[in-house]
């Protein structure tokens, strides 16, 4: 599995996935401040999904700060995603960006491509095109297993799974 992750992680830079360096910068700010502002959340959402990022601007500033502060105080993965998904513009894939930014050793950016790769590798069953907090929990378990078997962070395994799908997928994404 080390070779799988290494090979696909090398390919990640050639995809249109979220930039790990940008997420790391957001994560550093998040941990330093103890919360994220609406503008910072917008930037993260824009990295993840330019189409839905504008919805973030409808969230009250205070709610953005409160929710993101609460996310740092909660240990449960389901609860973290569910809290973030309560903000406009944040479904599970975009919420996963916030978690991966704040703790790349425990969290990964997930989406349709990551699910498809986990399915190809027999970690999950069935095709998925939309995700909720429960789906995040379903995906993060095997991603953490792969990370534990390798010398890579959970976030890096997520990026490798994304790149793997880009490499092997035939046809369109949806």
Summarize the model shown.
This protein is mainly alpha-helical and about 170 residues long. About 65% of the residues lie in helices and about 0% in strands.
How would you describe the overall organization of this protein?
The structure is a single chain. The chain is mainly alpha-helical and 174 residues long. It has 2 domains: 1-15 and 107-168, no CATH class; 20-102, no CATH class. The chain is 63% helix and 0% strand. It has 9 helices and no strands. Helix 1 (2-12) crosses helix 9, helix 2 (20-33) packs across helix 6 and helix 3 (38-48) packs across helix 6. The radius of gyration is 15 Å and the shape is globular. The two termini are 27 Å apart.
What is the strand and helix layout of this fold?
Blueprint: H1 2-12, H2 20-33, H3 38-48, H4 61-73, H5 77-85, H6 92-102, H7 112-120, H8 133-149, H9 154-168
Helix pairs in contact: 1-9, 2-6, 3-6, 4-5, 5-6, 5-8, 7-9, 8-9
Largest sheet descriptor: none
Structural class: mainly alpha
Radius of gyration: 15 Å
Number of β-strand runs? 0
What number of domains?
A: 2
Distance between the termini: 27 Å
Percentage of residues in helical conformation: 55-70%
What is the global morphology? Answer: globular
Poorly predicted residue ranges:
none
Q: Kindly report the average pLDDT value.
A: 94
Number of helices: 9
What portion of residues belong to β-strands?
under 5%
Order of helices and strands: HHHHHHHHH
């Amino acid at each position: 599995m080390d070779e799988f992750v290494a090979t696909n992680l090398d390919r990640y830079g050639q995809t249109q996935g979220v930039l790990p360096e940008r997420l790391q910068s957001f994560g550093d700010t998040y941990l330093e401040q103890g919360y994220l502002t609406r503008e910072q959340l917008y930037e993260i959402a824009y990295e993840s999904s330019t189409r839905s990022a504008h919805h973030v601007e409808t969230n009250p500033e205070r709610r953005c700060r409160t929710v993101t502060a609460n996310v740092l105080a909660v240990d449960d993965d389901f609860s973290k995603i569910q809290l973030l998904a309560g903000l406009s513009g944040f479904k599970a894939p975009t919420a996963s960006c916030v978690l991966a930014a704040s703790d790349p050793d425990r969290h990964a950016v997930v989406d349709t491509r990551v699910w498809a790769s986990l399915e190809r590798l027999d970690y999950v069953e069935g095709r998925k095109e939309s995700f909720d907090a429960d789906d995040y929990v379903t995906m993060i378990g095997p991603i953490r297993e792969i990370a534990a078997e390798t010398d890579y962070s959970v976030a890096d395994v997520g990026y490798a799974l994304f790149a793997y799908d880009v490499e092997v997928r035939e046809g369109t994404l949806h």
